[in-house]
Amino acid sequence: MGGLPGPYIKWFLQSLGNANLHKLLDGFEDKSAQFVCTFAYSPGPGREIVLFQERVDGQVVPARGVSSGWNPVFEVEGVTYGEMRADDERLIGPRRRALARLQEWIVENP
User: Could you tell me whether strands 32-41 and 79-80 are parallel, antiparallel, or unpaired per DSSP bridges?
Assistant: First the structure.
Protein backbone atom coordinates (compact mmCIF):
# COMPACT_ATOMS: atom_id res chain seq x y z
CA MET A 1 0.00 0.00 0.00
CA GLY A 2 2.90 2.30 -0.71
CA GLY A 3 4.02 2.51 2.91
CA LEU A 4 0.57 3.00 4.42
CA PRO A 5 -0.50 2.98 7.13
CA GLY A 6 2.98 3.54 8.54
CA PRO A 7 2.87 5.69 11.67
CA TYR A 8 -0.89 6.13 11.16
CA ILE A 9 -1.69 2.52 12.12
CA LYS A 10 -3.52 3.70 15.25
CA TRP A 11 -6.03 5.71 13.23
CA PHE A 12 -6.43 2.99 10.59
CA LEU A 13 -7.29 0.53 13.36
CA GLN A 14 -9.67 2.95 15.06
CA SER A 15 -11.52 3.50 11.79
CA LEU A 16 -11.38 0.03 10.25
CA GLY A 17 -10.85 -2.43 13.10
CA ASN A 18 -8.55 -5.44 12.81
CA ALA A 19 -10.82 -7.47 10.51
CA ASN A 20 -11.20 -4.68 8.00
CA LEU A 21 -7.51 -3.78 8.12
CA HIS A 22 -6.74 -7.25 6.82
CA LYS A 23 -9.50 -7.00 4.19
CA LEU A 24 -7.92 -3.77 2.97
CA LEU A 25 -4.95 -5.88 1.88
CA ASP A 26 -7.01 -8.51 0.02
CA GLY A 27 -5.98 -7.06 -3.33
CA PHE A 28 -2.28 -7.20 -2.48
CA GLU A 29 -0.16 -10.33 -2.73
CA ASP A 30 2.49 -8.84 -0.41
CA LYS A 31 1.13 -8.47 3.12
CA SER A 32 4.52 -7.86 4.72
CA ALA A 33 4.77 -5.36 7.54
CA GLN A 34 7.31 -4.04 10.02
CA PHE A 35 7.04 -3.13 13.67
CA VAL A 36 9.43 -0.18 14.05
CA CYS A 37 10.34 1.41 17.36
CA THR A 38 12.40 4.59 17.53
CA PHE A 39 13.73 6.35 20.61
CA ALA A 40 15.29 9.78 20.21
CA TYR A 41 17.63 11.46 22.67
CA SER A 42 19.09 14.94 22.82
CA PRO A 43 21.27 16.19 25.66
CA GLY A 44 19.69 19.64 25.32
CA PRO A 45 18.78 22.60 23.10
CA GLY A 46 20.97 22.97 20.05
CA ARG A 47 22.55 19.55 20.58
CA GLU A 48 22.45 16.70 18.10
CA ILE A 49 19.52 14.29 18.30
CA VAL A 50 20.58 10.64 18.41
CA LEU A 51 18.14 8.00 17.14
CA PHE A 52 17.92 4.38 18.28
CA GLN A 53 15.74 2.29 16.00
CA GLU A 54 14.91 -1.40 15.87
CA ARG A 55 12.56 -3.37 13.59
CA VAL A 56 10.74 -6.68 13.46
CA ASP A 57 9.57 -8.02 10.11
CA GLY A 58 6.21 -9.75 9.91
CA GLN A 59 2.99 -9.76 7.96
CA VAL A 60 -0.62 -8.68 8.35
CA VAL A 61 -2.97 -11.64 8.85
CA PRO A 62 -6.58 -12.14 9.96
CA ALA A 63 -6.86 -11.33 13.68
CA ARG A 64 -5.83 -14.12 16.06
CA GLY A 65 -5.36 -14.05 19.80
CA VAL A 66 -6.23 -11.43 22.34
CA SER A 67 -4.74 -8.03 22.86
CA SER A 68 -5.33 -4.50 21.77
CA GLY A 69 -4.18 -2.49 18.82
CA TRP A 70 -2.51 -4.23 15.93
CA ASN A 71 -1.12 -7.14 18.00
CA PRO A 72 -3.74 -9.69 16.80
CA VAL A 73 -3.02 -8.94 13.11
CA PHE A 74 0.81 -8.70 13.18
CA GLU A 75 2.34 -12.14 12.66
CA VAL A 76 5.99 -13.04 13.21
CA GLU A 77 7.19 -16.55 12.37
CA GLY A 78 3.66 -18.00 12.33
CA VAL A 79 2.43 -16.41 15.57
CA THR A 80 0.64 -13.08 16.06
CA TYR A 81 1.64 -10.76 18.86
CA GLY A 82 -1.91 -11.28 20.14
CA GLU A 83 -1.19 -15.02 20.55
CA MET A 84 2.12 -14.50 22.37
CA ARG A 85 2.63 -14.26 26.07
CA ALA A 86 3.70 -10.76 27.10
CA ASP A 87 7.15 -12.07 28.08
CA ASP A 88 7.66 -13.60 24.62
CA GLU A 89 6.52 -10.41 22.92
CA ARG A 90 8.99 -8.38 24.95
CA LEU A 91 11.83 -10.75 24.00
CA ILE A 92 11.37 -10.38 20.25
CA GLY A 93 9.90 -6.88 20.17
CA PRO A 94 11.92 -3.91 19.00
CA ARG A 95 11.06 -1.71 22.00
CA ARG A 96 13.34 -3.60 24.36
CA ARG A 97 16.24 -3.63 21.88
CA ALA A 98 15.91 0.06 20.97
CA LEU A 99 15.71 1.04 24.64
CA ALA A 100 18.73 -1.14 25.46
CA ARG A 101 20.71 0.65 22.73
CA LEU A 102 19.68 4.04 24.17
CA GLN A 103 20.67 2.97 27.69
CA GLU A 104 24.03 1.67 26.44
CA TRP A 105 24.68 4.93 24.59
CA ILE A 106 23.89 7.01 27.70
CA VAL A 107 26.33 4.94 29.78
CA GLU A 108 29.06 5.28 27.14
CA ASN A 109 28.43 9.02 26.57
CA PRO A 110 27.99 10.64 30.00
Answer: unpaired
Of residues 53, 44, 66, the one with CA closest to residue 94: 53
| List of domains in the chain | 6-108 (3.90.950.10)
Query: What is the distance between the alpha carbons of residues 103 and 20, in angstroms, rounded to a whole number?
Result: 38
> What phi and psi values does residue 79 have, to the nearest 5 degrees?
-130, 135
pLDDT tens per residue across span 65-106: 887 778 888 999 999 988 987 777 777 778 889 999 999 999
User: Could you give the CA distance from residue 73 to residue 62 in angstroms, rounded to a whole number?
Assistant: 6
Q: How far, CA to CA in Å, does 67 sit from each of 8, 73, 81?
A: 19, 10, 8
The pTM for the full model equals 0.77
Pairwise CA distance, residues 42 & 57, whole Å? 28
